[in-house]
Amino acid sequence: MDRTPPQPSVSRLPAFREQPLVVGVLPDASPVLVHAAEGLALALGATRICFAYVDPTRVIVEERPDGRVVHAALDTDADDAEWSERRDALATRLDTLLPHSRVPWELHYLAGRPDRALTHLARAVDASMIVVGTYADGWVDQVRHTLEGTLSTHLSQHQHRPVVTVPLSVVDWKDPVVR
């Protein structure tokens, strides 16, 4: 019989100080998200920031215990070198945004469903929390999010680590809404 406490449970809460942070990013990584994650990492004394991009054009072949994944192109006719170019461009962007970071960081290039991939990485590195951003959506994306849910919602419903959502576009409630 499984004696693991159910989620969420006080006994399953991760330590918050001196643990890694997992931060979900896109190829055009938002400076707001990256710097918010760095500030949070500094405040928590995080050992490192694990930036992670989940490539929707790739599928998981193998998940490794350290959080890395072996992946392959979803489209077998696709140029298989494109993913490494995206990875290198994102690493360069992060390096440009954090040239003198006081928190070590690394980039994980993942595949599959973003909520599942980020959860696997967070579990593998024993992260204190997962940080994601919100994005300015058009009305089609708003309908999709209403029907399917957002990444932060999926994350908060499928694992026991706290999920911090950084606003990347905001409605100023002092100004009238223009439709």
Give me a quick take on this structure.
The protein is α/β, with parallel strands linked by helices and 179 residues long.
Would you write up a description of this structure?
The protein is an alpha/beta fold and about 180 residues long. It has helices at about 30-45, 80-95, 115-125, 140-150, 150-160, and strands spanning about 20-25, 50-55, 60-65, 70-75, 105-110, 130-135, 165. Strand 1, helix 1 and strand 2 form a beta-alpha-beta unit. Helix 3 (about 115-125) packs across helix 5 (about 150-160). The mean pLDDT is about 80.
Helix content: 25-40%
Order of helices and strands: EHEEEHEHEHHE
Spatially, the strands of the biggest sheet line up as: 5-2-1-6-7
Main beta-sheet annotation = 5 strands, parallel
